[in-house]
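Quick check before the chapter quiz. The format below is the same one you will see on the exam, so make sure you can read both the input and the output lines.
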Amino acid sequence: MTKLAPTPIQPAGTSVPRQPSMVLFLDDEELILASLRNLFRREGYTMVFFKSALEASAYLDAQVVDVVVSDLRMPDLSGGEFLERVSTQCPDAVRVVLSGYENKGEVLELLARGTAHHYVLKPWDESAFRELVSHALRVQLELRESRLKKILGNMETLPSPPKFHVRLKSLMNNFDNPIKEIVSEIEKSPPLVARILRVANSVFYGPRRPISTVREAVIFIGLEYVSGLVMAIEAFQNVCRNPGKDCLHSVEEIWDMSLHRARIAKQIADTWPGIKDAHVPYVSALLQDIGYVVRICHDPEAYIRFVHLYKSGELTKHEAESEVFSITHEEVGAALLEYWNFPPEIITSVRGHHQKAADTDLIRIVQIAEGVAVIDRANPHDQSLDRQIVGWRQKLSQPAGG
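Here is the expected output.
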């Protein structure tokens, strides 16, 4: 078989310096590679093209790239095997699978395991494909020298309470259960919500609005794939480093509070003028503390010290966070969701759920829900919402029909 040597858009010498924006494309079809060259020729990236997965892998032994776009079906090494190598050779690279619809199940498994970050369907939508690569490079550039980079390196290890999966699997195996029950069960696990939405927003079928709710994601992915997706997520999470008994207890506390707050947010959103889908505030409230979960996985000892400081009464929760960490959990959570290509409204809500000027209805609802769920006046929030917080606290404390 004739092999294609790497073909940089810009000439490379014997010693190639690290380029600020380097993209590697792998496909065994010359026509596909030609189409990719044509699609990205005006973008200004340094690009290399390969027809052989083994040659591309050898290239990555010596060269760091920012984005890797790989076909799934290769003659010498499968796309999945190649991307597994890439995850070790260039762990910071954004990995994109280029494949047809017939391989959807296999690709979703790669997305769930974290082997791939995005899925572009052949034939691709040119505008969406260009925006995907552009977005990936922007995020890489922002994170390259960021303090968040080390923390987000452990983002694939978000734990999930094991007790959840048994119930969901039972629902999945009973075909008489409506989608509503399956969605309701998925929504009980914040990290699974994050992963399901991440997968749904990583599949580029063409121009469409971002997917913000679990129901939309389940319908979009397809029930026949959700069961396998959940099993893949569970299998991956089983290799998570055990953060210790104390931190696991903290994870359970976060889950319980997240669910309580999210239910309140949904109740508020149901009566809020202009909110068309109460599930968006629900998901936003559910994920607003996902930055804490990343911290537990990344540095459990620091997290235990942080919990001790505020639970002992020495400092408020946010004073303790400033004392122990240099970055707020809002920044960590928002950066994580940005990296996962979440809808901008949810990212903005997570980043702004403690801002003193709540400038969108979504952030206002999330802050009110937080104020109702956690009676802590020291929590930073928009104080103009205090009257509504008190009103909703009284309303929700009344018995049904009272």
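If your answer matched, good. The beta strands are 22-26, 46-50, 67-71, 94-99, 118-121, 203-204.
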